[in-house]
Design a protein that fits this description.
Blueprint (H helix, E strand, L loop, with lengths): L1 E3 L5 E7 L5 H7 L2 E5 L8 H15 L4 E7 L3 H9 L3 E7 L9 E8 L7
Antiparallel strand pairs: 1-2, 2-3, 4-6, 5-6
Length: 115
Amino acid sequence: MAVCENDGRVVGIIDYRHPLSDFLFKFGGNIGYSVRPDERRKGYAKEMLGLILARCREAGEARVLVCCDSDNEASRKTIVRNGGVLENETADTVGLTKSGTIQRYWINIKKDLIV
């Protein structure tokens, strides 16, 4: 899914990945997102994640895994603001992060949860 402004310019993208492969379970999670650098800190990531969580809930998911670089404070805040609870940190043995550490968050999205 892509988020576009009125002029059709892509502001960000978000992807729901199901089912989780072993690789995604360890390093990537169910949801991945990115916002273009000049559009960050405007609330797009929080809104995109909230919207995709609603779709995941409609699809019958009880919880989803979202991962981020341990040094990415903005992504961590986005995940936590959408209900993410840190499960653990794992070594990035595949080179996805700058810090070398991946944080793994679970978000419960039961039907009675309001996002």
